[in-house]
UniProtKB/TrEMBL annotation, chains A, B:
Gene Ontology terms, MF aspect: kinase activity
Keyword Transferase part of the UniProt annotation: yes
Annotated Carbohydrate kinase PfkB domain residues: 26-276
Signal peptide feature range: none
GO CC field: cytosol
Organism: Algisphaera agarilytica
Pfam families, alphabetized: PfkB
Keywords: Kinase, Transferase
InterPro entries registered for this protein in UniProt: Carboh/pur_kinase_PfkB_CS, PfkB_dom, Ribokinase-like
Official protein name in the record: Sugar/nucleoside kinase (Ribokinase family)
Length: 303, 303
């Protein structure tokens, strides 16, 4: 499979009610890539600064990630985020954010990546997402993420983007902001009216919702007792989902999409069991398959 | 099956963002009984006042409900509740409440009901629930509901009750209040430590969670687009669940309980499609079976 992801790579400092992790690897693209890589190789395009420490590079090499598009930019600093989770482990506050290299130009897409068939446009300015889209003429399946900032500040560009992609992934609050609909089915319908063939609305601990021409699917999250750090849950969900779809040859039938959501749910459930990518570095594909089976068995309510 | 329910019967006036329904039949016991009656006959114990209008009695006779324990008390007034749902159709405000007959003694349990095997103690003072429990020596399966008021004001009596029942049904915010745990799995474990064999934590539009010695089950709600009135969703969920369990002979295995939750989910999804019991009076058991099949198919994520 030729799955490519672009997005942030950063150094996070995370505080939770039970612990903290200073200066650990983070960023949407690396969480996504790690999760997707269980299904096959992932191409990564992103930049860090010259301050990026060697010891944080270990995960890049642990997972099946093609690093030809990873730039260590001299004279720039790495994106940094410091966040604090509240007692409920769902709500969080950003204590500080330094965009640094994220505020500069994206690194160039290597020539060897331009034949990528499966494209995930992680959350960034929709103008940047549109520019990226044009660099992948062979794309068979394009899925984008977005956020409240772009919905509010760049609605027209975002709508242009929505007319050109196959799928959109976003949070429930963002879906409400984008469509004005509080009912999740109506919000989904309003997104599909803007162009995408499917939309996945993420609800954190409450699971995820899919709307597609052939139907609607709601799935719960995997019941997680020992939540250490929710950072990257949405990105690993997206990575697991997209990795599954790429490995399936881009099958976007309702049945394939919901299994892809289940794959995303399962890898995200492992991700939150540790800070940073710690847990994902401990597990293998068989662990994911086993938990996928358990998840499917839990959801078997047929008579 | 000999399933009995006690609880409120009232006259509701409901305001939603899209409409209103003045002076319609409501109350936890009638929603519960109607939903449970699709699985078999239900015995109802409850009281209304002498102001209770004949035209609101129609649902009592439509469903398979034994009314021997329904008292129309002379000189008393019927419980009344007026509520307003906010734009999101989940949060609501109570505009007025008149306990009336609910503040008086419960009607006596008819002798013919005392051999009931399946007992649902709808939300009321835990002292009242304990007193009721003693009147059903043949009970094989006892499930109770409760609320924040009793958790805060009668914690000791509530804990005594929890030591004597098989299952507890409550909302997520109530589970947090009762146990101090924000994580739903940990909250469930803390409830089981107080005595019940299982606990079902209701999450409204986000579904429901079951914890049992043999495992945990999270189910989503059925994706509902046309929500007219959420009143009674939790009570019909409980009724569908308990009706299913009674019809199964009181099988409280994990597998039976999760199918019972699915039955509750499905009947609640119909209930919210109309004000009061309108929709439940239009459908039959085959509608529930069809939607149960659709729900099970939606949740099939097996490889």
């Amino acid at each position: 499979m030729s799955l490519i992801v672009t997005g942030s790579i950063g150094i996070d400092t995370i505080h939770t009610p039970t612990g903290q992790a200073p200066d650990v690897l983070g960023g949407s693209a690396i969480y996504f890539a790690a999760a997707a890589s269980f299904h096959g190789p992932v191409r990564l395009v992103g930049a860090v600064g010259d301050d990026f420490p060697d010891e944080l590079e270990k995960p890049f090499h642990h997972f099946d990630i093609d690093l030809a598009g990873l730039e260590k930019r001299q004279g720039s600093k790495t994106f940094r985020w410091t966040g604090k989770y509240l007692e409920n482990m769902n709500d969080r506050e950003t204590l500080s954010v330094d965009l640094n290299v994220l505020a500069e130009d994206l690194p160039p897409v290597p020539e060897a990546f331009k034949n990528s068939e499966y494209l995930f446009l992680a959350n960034t300015h929709p103008g940047g997402q549109l520019a990226l889209l044009e660099q992948f003429p062979a794309a068979k399946l394009t899925v984008a993420d977005t956020m409240d900032l772009w919905i509010e500040t760049e609605p027209d560009l975002l709508k242009t983007l929505l007319g050109k992609i196959d799928g959109l992934v976003l949070n429930d609050s963002e879906a409400h902001l984008l469509t004005g609909e509080t009912n999740i089915v109506k919000a989904g319908e309003a997104v599909l009216a803007l162009g995408p063939k499917f939309v996945v609305i993420k609800k954190g601990e409450h699971g995820a919702f899919l709307l597609h021409a052939d139907g609607a699917v709601a799935l719960p999250a995997y019941p997680a007792k020992d939540v250490i750090d929710p950072t990257g849950a949405g990105d690993t969900f997206g990575g697991g989902m997209m990795g599954y779809l790429a490995a399936s040859g881009g099958d976007t039938s309702l049945s394939s999409l919901k299994k892809a959501m289940a794959a995303g749910t399962v890898v995200a459930s492992y991700n939150i069991e540790s800070f940073s990518l710690g847990k994902l570095m401990e597990i293998g594909k068989s662990d994911l398959e086993l938990r996928h089976s358990e998840f499917a068995a839990m959801l078997d309510v047929s008579e």
